[in-house]
């Protein structure tokens, strides 16, 4: 089973090809270029360097959110377009769960995958990770760092932070004595984690066609939030 996976939910972008649970290739870029500039060339390069034709791919996978609204849209649109053009099944996975898969192979660990959602909030979820699997402990959600800290203190167990919000949360929650940063090499979003999360979903039968694939947003884009707030306050929406 060959899975072509991508992630463009944050500043970095990556593409990976996994075959029978083996990572065949992974390209990762975080050099300031836009995803519209890097994503499709990376996909083409992964296929070219692994001597893989699009017809040899069995499944397409994408981190469908949460994340940057623009990044999520670009990634989902790319996989949706490929799925429709090639008539291939696809899988949309949680960005947060995909990051937890980066830590598989370690001793049993509680992982908090966290992304900076701006406006003093983070996208966050807890997972139990061991040598072979990832078990979800809560749904993906948008919450304040303060609320996250209260939950960690209440659980009173060590937590490993992954994601582009990990450093931010570490600064705010270090005083709890319960949080630590994941190693830098496996701290951020990677398409290889998307591929591993997708394989789990495939075995569970959670497979989509291109028309069914949708981005996952945990809150409205800022422009829509401001418009909604203006309407609720009785202001002119224009």
Automatic annotation (TrEMBL):
GO biological process entries: tRNA threonylcarbamoyladenosine modification
SUPFAM superfamilies: Actin-like ATPase domain (SSF53067)
Parts forming coiled coils: none
UniProt GO MF annotations: transferase activity
Keyword Transferase: yes
Cytoplasm keyword on record: no
Alphabetic keyword roster: Transferase
Protein's name according to its UniProt entry: tRNA (Adenosine(37)-N6)-threonylcarbamoyltransferase complex dimerization subunit type 1 TsaB
């Amino acid at each position: 089973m060959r899975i072509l996976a991508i992630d463009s939910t944050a500043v970095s972008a990556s593409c990976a090809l996994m075959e029978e649970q083996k990572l065949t290739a992974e390209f990762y870029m975080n050099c300031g270029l836009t995803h519209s500039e890097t994503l499709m060339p990376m996909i083409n390069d992964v296929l070219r360097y692994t001597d893989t034709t699009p017809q040899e791919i069995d499944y397409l996978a994408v981190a469908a959110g949460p994340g940057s609204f623009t990044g999520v849209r670009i990634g989902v649109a790319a996989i949706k377009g490929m799925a429709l053009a090639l008539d291939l099944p696809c899988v949309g996975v949680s960005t947060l769960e995909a990051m937890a898969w980066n830590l598989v192979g370690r001793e049993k660990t509680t992982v908090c995958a966290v992304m900076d959602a701006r406006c003093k909030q983070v996208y966050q979820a807890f997972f139990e990770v061991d040598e072979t699997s990832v078990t979800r402990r809560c749904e993906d959600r948008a919450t304040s760092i303060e609320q996250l800290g209260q939950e960690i203190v209440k659980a009173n167990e060590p937590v490993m932070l992954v994601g582009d919000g990990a450093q931010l949360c570490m600064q705010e929650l270090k005083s709890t004595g319960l949080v630590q940063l994941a190693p830098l090499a496996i701290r951020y979003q990677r398409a290889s984690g998307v591929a591993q999360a997708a394989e789990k979903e495939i075995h569970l039968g959670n497979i989509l066609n291109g028309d069914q694939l949708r981005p996952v947003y945990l809150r409205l884009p800022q422009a829509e939030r401001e418009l909604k707030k203006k309407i609720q306050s009785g202001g002119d929406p224009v």
